[in-house]
Amino acid sequence: xxxxxxxxxxxxxxxxxxxxxxxxxxxxxxxxxxxxxxxxxxxxxxxxxxxxxxxxxxxxxxxxxxxxxxxxxxxxxxxxxxxxxxxxx
Length: 89
Hints:
The chain has one domain (8-76). Helix content is 0%, strand content 51%. The chain has no helices and five strands. The chain starts with 7 loop residues before the first strand and ends in a 13-residue tail after the last strand.
């Protein structure tokens, strides 16, 4: 990856979804995107991925799904330090 040309394809669909995470006791309003990494990164990150950002001006990453060497990974927001911010309802 450091010595070659690589591509990442991202599809911003504008689709909103409510995502449940343990950090809050309500569904978080998010914007969905998907894509493909034509490269291999740390722990074998490669291929198709999906993500959800908060549907507000902050666009905080709320959840992601990606492929690794050992299988698939799901990542969820568990805490934040941004003062005055709360995930949108």
